[in-house]
């Protein structure tokens, strides 16, 4: 049960990468770094103004969107335009991840940080089973984000344009649209989701700068498992990973659960790189 | 170039460094020098796979720690001498490299990189749960007594690492200038085309991953004696991955001299920053320098110097 709730939260963390990596083919390995940044924003606002973390997450969406747009601009001029995006771009994002992590470390130290809100620590009962709000709320928000992103991508003109970029940007250019602009906005959107995802992360448990690394394996495992850029696939893969991890934690102890996501990732990459729902 | 030269140059470098370190006479030199030399080995090893072949490895820490833990387990179990530990560490990490090499059959580019990162986390989890070598708490190890010609053990370790560094650079130089290096460069430029032209891509890739892993493992083997306390978080630290990738990138990835330049520049800058400012700031410097170089000078310092030289001649 807890696994499913965690899975919903993983979906929230992964959605952005699913768009950036799955659809735009931008290997944003720094994605978890931005999630942690989102957590710290939630922490800071909570500490100084007593703001609810989820509210902070919503408020900071435009800020993160701007950050994403700026990052894509650098990435595009530096690598994608010259066709050197694959390896150097990867190293670039690795460097960005490292900078975000160390900057947070310098600003807030290595201690675990957490937020306070009324509903944390309370739980909701269905018969015998108690469900903690700190797990339930992230799951619900994660599902809502998934639904919202799915609607944006399939119903709006702009969402279809993003999908078109991922299929054939040359054809899109011939149709009179600017693929670079669309990719920039889509990447901004991808980073924007990390604001909310970060807020959820700090709701679930305390956060310190280097836990972003643990999420690299998880988010990439989910994106690959879900079949690169499929929003529905991302959700299913998140739930699967959440359940498998919590089962491992129950039967073998929590120290092994981290290896599960990376192990799944290794196996999926080696055996079926197109994922569960790949074409 | 004649084949005999590098051996003499290598020996000369070893002697010169020894004399220099003796002259300074401060034990800190050995400690700082050890770290820089260790990064020479790691950066050179990374470059054999990353620079020559074009497969970006994020899992340096995995290979390094493989050497660390192999040496640790052996030294705890049978008190094996250091040279043997280094060989064993190299072999086990080389085997790991061979395994990763088979992964390249299915995984290209980005996916390979992510898989190496995954490998590093999985192995860290294993190390954390392996109680014999201390689990998550780590285990402390007592250094043996210094041997005859060396005043203390730090000096001995320094010399060992010096020899390893020179040996790995010579190996990298040999690879670069032999047919293997040309085959690897062909893989880097276009793997399918290379395969079609009859380059034995799989065998070459396996060679590159194994050699790279072997060197990284060797550099990790003396680590237990260097730090005295081995625990998973620092043995698997992401710093190794970032540094061993940043150094060749800064120095220049296509030649054997690039990683040395990068390792010395970045390594000494880090040592200075650690002492004068703080160890977190030095990591921040690495990150920023890495991003700046990747963006602005993709050929690294060696590439910049070459371009300057060409312009002057023209």
Overview of the molecule:
The complex is a heterodimer of chains A (279) and B (314). Chain A has one domain (2-211). Chain A is built from twelve helices and two strands; from the N terminus they run H-H-H-H-H-E-E-H-H-H-H-H-H-H. Chain A has helices at 2-23, 31-49, 53-59, 61-80, 85-108, 133-155, 157-167, 169-174, 179-204, 212-225, 231-252, 254-271; strands at residues 123-126, 129-132. In chain A, strand 1 and strand 2 form a beta hairpin. Chain A is globular, with a radius of gyration of 18 Å. Chain A starts with a helix and ends in an 8-residue tail after the last helix. The mean pLDDT of chain A is 79. Chain B has 314 residues and is mostly helical. Chain B has one domain (5-238). Chain B contains 15 helices and two strands. Chain B has helices at 5-24, 27-50, 60-78, 82-103, 109-128, 153-177, 179-189, 191-196, 201-220, 223-227, 232-235, 238-251, 257-276, 279-296, 300-313, and strands spanning 139-140, 229-230. In chain B, helix 3 runs parallel beside helix 5. The radius of gyration of chain B is 19 Å and the shape is globular. Chains A and B meet through helix 5, helix 10 and helix 12 of A and helix 5, helix 12 and helix 14 of B.
**What percentage of the residues of chain A does DSSP assign to strands (E)?**
under 5%
Dominant shape of chain A:
globular
Shape of chain B: globular
Number of helices of chain B: 15
In whole angstroms, the N-to-C terminal distance of chain B is 25 Å
Sheet/helix structural class of chain B: mainly alpha
Order of helices and strands of chain A: HHHHHEEHHHHHHH
Uncertain parts of chain A: none
* Count of all domains of chain A: 1
- Counting DSSP E segments of at least 2 residues, the number of strands of chain A comes to 2
- Sheet with most strands of chain A: 2 strands, antiparallel
Strand content of chain B: under 5%
